[in-house]
Amino acid sequence: MTAFAAHPALRRYWHAVAPAVAAADEPLAVRLLGEDLVVWRAGPDTLGVLRDRCPHREAPLSAGRVDGGCVECPYHGWRFDASGACRLVPSAGGGGAVPSRAAVPAYRAVERYGLVWVCLDEPAAPPPSVPEDDDPSFRRINPPVDVWRAAATRMVDNFLDIAHFPFVHRASFGGAAAAEVPAVELGDLGGWFGYRYAVTAANPEAGAAASGASAAVVHREMSTGFTLPFAVRSTIRYDSGLQHVLLLLSTPRDDESSYFAFVVWRNDDASVPAEEVIRLDLLIGEEDRRMLERVPGTLALERNALVNVQADRASVEWRRRLRELLGPPSGG
Ligand code: FES
Ligand SMILES: [Fe+2]
Fold first, then answer.
1. What pTM did the predictor assign?
2. What pLDDT does residue 332 have?
């Protein structure tokens, strides 16, 4: 099902689809907004992104290989460059002409924050901006990109929500978190829209590297905000001054499955290995994934479709703005 994911407005935004390192010597199959795509490294600074279907006999180009900056179809070896133009038809011999219709739709791709971002139409906005990436006191950590069997809308709603901490995250950091959520005051967070709050977090062994503390419980000053359509940024500041910034990206593959790409920035001295630092984040992500994979379908965006309470204010505002971005529902 792609009724939601295929909305044309979503094609005008950048979506993270893969780790940048995955676009290398082998073509990579990705699915974005209901479209199957092949991604490969066409040159040092060029990523190729084409529809993953050969115009000759419709074989998936992602099952082929990369040669000379082109992707080569696995079936009869036709080669396509990053513009989608066919460069070689081996059966036609050296002097054979390439049929002019032998082209594949090509899309824009950029590399940012260690991820491949794809936009399927004229971009309406640049990819979201994380200022810590330019700050030399922060290092960046790129965990793997996963597929969740959950709607991207449900993921964003979850990432904006702190009322689930003591329940979904009881086994990780949420065991010490208060169930009551103080009044949510929404505002600008430097290009992101959201709120600030404080959390008393359990500090399990798996989290000691992330918090840089061994106490049973740690205090976190946090903020969480969004940019449309599906990016969330969360910041954590521990009492020691240590900051841990998370970019949480939900990319619809289709209505019911999504990429979960997250990136971490920390202002530490990099003495703790990256894998140790993100152990807690991976555990927390698994807890969210297990919850959301139990909830079928996309999140209803209509104003009164769901029951909301004060703690849901950020999600209510994100849904209102997403409705605006999508425009009035088409008739029928
Ligand atoms: S199907 Fe791709 S070259 Fe024939
Ligand atoms: Fe969560």
1. 0.95
2. 39
